[in-house]
Automatic annotation (TrEMBL):
InterPro entries: Fe-transptr_FeoA-like (IPR007167), FeoA (IPR052713), FeoA_core_dom (IPR038157), Transcriptional_repressor_C (IPR008988). It comes from the Bacteria. Keywords: Iron. The keyword Iron applies. Residues 3-75 form the Ferrous iron transporter FeoA-like domain. This is Ferrous iron transporter FeoA-like domain-containing protein. The keyword Oxidoreductase does not apply. Pfam families: FeoA.
Length: 76
């Protein structure tokens, strides 16, 4: 099933299909290692859902929901 990263709940995993957007936001996402075929797991969500903590390549990152909406994933 194809979703955007912001639609995943705590504990869910997905494989990155594509990163949308342009400019510094996309560059920041790609620089963090979020590229096609990368496994991502949602670790935690803040009390109001923003930001979200994800695990990518054995390290944890925090992303805003607006940034996570630019990442298309395939859930397992």
């Amino acid at each position: 099933m194809i979703k955007t990263l912001n639609q995943l709940g705590s504990g869910e995993t997905g494989v990155v299909i594509k990163v949308y957007g342009s400019g510094p936001v996309k560059r920041r996402i790609v620089d963090m290692g979020i590229v096609a075929e990368t496994l991502i797991q949602v670790q935690k969500l803040a009390p109001l859902g923003d930001p979200m903590e994800i695990k990518v390549k054995n390290f944890n990152l925090s992303l805003r929901k607006s940034e996570a909406a630019l990442i298309e994933v395939r859930t397992q």
